[in-house]
Amino acid sequence: MTDLDAPGGFDPAILAYYERGDEDARLRTDPGSDAGNRLEFWRTQDVLRRTLPAQPGRLLDVGGGPGAHAAWLAADGWTVDLIDPVPLHVTQAAALPGVTARTGDARRLDCPDAAYDAVLLLGPLYHLPERADRLRALREAARAVRPGGVVAAAEISRYAGLNDNLHRGRYFDPEVRRMTDAVLVDGCQGGPELRLFTTAYFHDPAEIPGEFAAAGLTDVVTRGLEGTAWLMPGMDRHLDDPERRAVVLHALRQVETAPALLGASGHLLTTALRPAD
Predict the structure, then answer these.
(1) Which residue, 38, 73, 95, 131, shows the most beta carbons closer than 10 Å to its own?
(2) Are 206 and 217 in contact (CB under 8 A)?
(3) Structural domains of the chain, count
(4) What's the order of all strands across the beta sheet hosting 267-273?
């Protein structure tokens, strides 16, 4: 979904992971698709629709992958420009109505200052293990958005791997347990741990406000997307039923900013503002 410096360009592990083409199907909302992925999609959509400025407007989707979110944002009335380092993703996103797509780096955006009403980083931060790179990406987003505009960024919780592997029973495998525990130390996944995902950084929720503030952003709010709903028995059944799904989303809104529950979510979504001039 996004990028990382490496000799000669992007981290080859990240590019190889996403060039497999799996990301285009990951956030599908069709009945029978993965319940956790559907919940992540609907909660991201729910939070963004409540926190982005009123459209029409211009939106930059940085690390937007094949355009799962760009598609509905364009349908909502946004003019969407998508940037991603994976050529396959750019080709897929460029075919979406109302979306333009090009290759690029979250830390070096090729756009003018204050060109957008909102900037999304729904993948870059969790593929940048170095704090300096994450701050570069956030500062670039702050530069690209207009004064008073919204920057929204996704993070993976430091505890996502532990929670998921316990839930799926994989944590009982000594090797999986060793790799999972290693990520808990500093949030960084690489080397042997790549068998669990790809090069990644998992945020401690408490460190997120400081990174946004260091990038010059204000009014920082971090929300947990899945909360503890992913533990519910029969989650597929609840999400397949629109009325029951609405109840699940309502429940998660009630606790989305509760500090004690942020680490229970696999994914976090942080919104902030570029200060008005």
Answers:
(1) 73
(2) no
(3) 1
(4) 99-102, 79-83, 58-62, 116-121, 145-156, 267-273, 218-224
- Nearest in space to 122 (alpha carbons), one of 200, 69, 53: 69
Which pLDDT score is estimated for 200?
Answer: 94
Please report whether residue 115 resides in a domain.
yes
* Cβ 124 vs Cβ 137: under 8 Å: yes
Residue at 177 is within a domain: no
Show the DSSP H helices in the chain as ranges: 12-19, 23-26, 35-51, 68-76, 87-94, 131-144, 160-168, 174-186, 208-214, 235-240, 242-255
- Encoding tokens for residue 128? 């940048």
Contact, 232 vs 238, CB < 8 A? yes
Share of the chain above pLDDT 90, in %: 82
How far, in Å, CA of 6 to CA of 274, rounded? 30
In a domain, 163, yes or no: no
> What is the extent of the structural domain holding 207?
5-157+203-273
Are residues 181 and 133 in contact, defined by beta-carbon separation less than 8 angstroms? Answer: no
pLDDT of 9:
55
Answer whether residue 137 is part of any domain.
yes
Token pair recorded at residue 181: 């525990």
Question: What tens digit of pLDDT does each residue of 107-139 get?
Answer: 999 999 999 999 999 999 999 999 999 999 999
Q: Which residues pair with 58 in a beta bridge?
A: 79
CATH number of the domain encompassing residue 114: 3.40.50.150
Q: For the stretch 162-191, what's the b/e string if a residue is b when 16 or more beta carbons lie within 10 angstroms of its beta carbon? A: bbbbeeeeebeeeebeebbebbeeebebbe
Which pLDDT value is given to residue 31?
Answer: 80
pTM reported for the whole predicted model? 0.94
